[in-house]
Amino acid sequence: MARSKRNLVLSVLLVVILGVFSFAVPLPYTLVIPGDTADTLGTDNGVPVIQIEGATPQPTDGKLLLVTIRATDPDEKLYLSDLFDAWFDDDEAVVPKKSVYAEGKSKKEIIADNTKDMVESQDHAAIAALNHLGLDPNQVKVKLNLADVGGPSAGLMFSLGIVDQLGTQNLTGGRIIAGTGTIDDAGKVGPIGGVELKTKAAKRDGAVAFLLPKQECDKAKEVAPGGLRLIPVETLNGAVDALIAFQTGGKVPSC
Fold first, then answer.
1. 176-179/63-71 β-pairing
2. Most CB contacts within 10 A, which of 117, 122, 162, 196?
3. CA quadruple 24, 26, 30, 36: dihedral sign
4. Is 198 a catalytic residue?
């Protein structure tokens, strides 16, 4: 009997300690959820996302969506009680805070870094697209306008938006295509973070296909919503070819 009472007391004590810990000790994690999408062929606050000088954009239809994720504010403290439900929710993710926000930096510095990455990504996207089209970057100027989006992962979709407007082929076929991936001046597509949640945002906003860096396939196909075609790409050229094949019934890469 004494042992049973002792075990009961220990159990109650553990529950109390866990309860206090759940609400009193902040954890080095952040909560990430599917974010907004933006159409690179559309407008942002009434201004075209892609503005072109020195060439005449072609009419477009369909959408080319860049996809984002949304993380808890870097200054917000999260506790075990805040994160517990997210561990069991496919539409949320709990990740180490340092994987989203640089350690030792203020919120202001983090925002500045994300903005810098976005600007550089836009520059790379424009150069890659103009090179793909055989246009002189000194003669054709591209300005990209999109508020409240940071980081480099929209590069691929920016490039495709430019190619769609200045090229001779319609890339969407009137459908909604989403995607993510960094891009460099040579058109090489690089990895990004949060691809699992980005597939959910794409499906939520009506996309029928999702372009992604080839090395992200394994992560994406584990949780991608049904009805969303995953199309892995390694280069801008490959992405353009894949979209044309997707329209015409040709061979399309698949995860």
1. parallel
2. 162
3. positive
4. yes
Average pLDDT, the chain: 83
Catalytic residue among 97, 198, 200, 203: 198
How many other C-beta atoms can be found within 10 angstroms of the C-beta atom of residue 80? 17
- CA-CA distance, 166 to 180, in Å (whole number)? 21
Per-residue pLDDT reduced to its tens digit, 92-150: 777 676 666 666 677 787 678 777 877 888 899 999 999 999 999 899 999 988 766 76
d(CA 38, CA 154) in angstroms, rounded, equals 10
Beta-ladder partners of 15: none
Q: Which letter, b or e, does each residue of 105-135 get, where b requires 16 or more Cβ atoms within 10 Å of its Cβ?
A: eeeeebeeebeebbeebbbbbbbbbbbbeeb
| Record: fold of 34-69+106-248 | Ribosomal Protein S5; domain 2 (3.30.230)
| Structure-model confidence comparison of residues 193 and 235, the more confident one | 235
- 116 carries an active-site annotation: no
CA 65 and chain centroid, separation = 10
Half-sphere exposure of 159 (CA within 13 A, CB side): 35
By the 8 A CB rule, do 212 and 156 touch?
A: no
Specify the DSSP class assigned to residue 188.
B
Q: Which of 97, 153, 200, 203 does the annotation list as catalytic?
A: 153
Distances (CA, A) of 97 to 65, 71, 78: 27, 9, 10
Q: How confident is the model at residue 178 (pLDDT cuts 50, 70, 90)?
A: very high
pTM summary value: 0.83
